[in-house]
Amino acid sequence: MSASPLIGRLIEALRCLPGVGPKSAQRMAYYLLERDRPGALALADALREAVEHVGHCQVCRTLTEEEICPICADERRDRSVLCIVETPADVYAVQQATGYRGLYFVLMGHLSPLDGIGPEDIGLDLLAKRLDAGEVEEVILATSSTVEGEATSHYIADMARHRGIRATRIAHGVPMGGELEYVDGSTLSHAFEGRRDL
User: Fold this and answer.
1) Where does residue 177 rank: exposed (0-12), middle (13-18), buried (19+ CB within 10 A)?
2) CATH code for the domain of 85
3) Residue ranges, the chain, pLDDT below 50
4) Is 93 inside a domain boundary?
5) Any residues with CB less than 8 A from the CB of 11 and at least 6 apart, and which?
6) The dihedral formed by the CA atoms of 12, 17, 19 and 23, expressed in degrees to the nearest 10
7) Residues 13-71: tens digit of each pLDDT
8) How many helical (H) and strand (E) elements, i.e. helices and strands, does the chain have?
9) pTM for this one?
10) In Å, how far are 55, 91, 93, 149, 152 from 88, measured between CA atoms?
């Protein structure tokens, strides 16, 4: 424990970040206090402002400062295609890595009955209303390849099919540059199942 209560409190506060343990939090705290006090103040200001002013888009549920995010507000996007993701970070990843021009729906999690997370907890009632509106012709399921992500994907695919909406799943498999001998069996199995013609 730090000799200073304020330093100790800073270290504990930094531990709320994912993947940051006690030693990493301590290194960050001392770095900011010893070498970058202006950076620490800028970080504190940016964090406070983001927490106070960033909310969820009323249409897709991603993080935004506006009532409707810039993606949903963009009339040039294809409103017939809806990509379903688990987190706002997934929206950012798809936007950065692909040429996808449709819209999104952010679940803010995945189904997990053991943890008490059901369909309403991840907004599937809101998704149903959006699908019922008749604008969406295809949902692209881009949930994680975990057991919960797969279960969520299947649940949403059933919702879509019952409404006559096409449901597709992003491919999972061998990463670019990956060698087969180092790929786990489950990933390799998915890669074979998702194979396509060349």
Assistant:
1) exposed
2) 3.40.1360.10
3) none
4) yes
5) 2, 22, 25, 26, 29
6) -30
7) 999 999 999 999 999 999 999 999 999 999 999 999 999 999 999 999 999 999 999 99
8) 8, 6
9) 0.84
10) 11, 5, 9, 15, 17
CA 103, distance to chain mean position in Å, is: 14
- For Cα atoms 115, 121, 127, give the angle at the middle one, nearest 5 degrees: 140
Domain that holds residue 47: 5-53
- Asked whether residue 177 is domain-assigned, the answer is no
Burial of 113 (0-12, 13-18, 19+ CB in 10 A): exposed
Helix (H, G, I), strand (E, B) or coil at 46: helix
Number of domains observed in the structure of the chain: 2
Do 133 and 165 contact (CB within 8 A), yes or no? no
Asked if 79 and 90 count as a contact pair (C-beta separation under 8 A), the reply is no
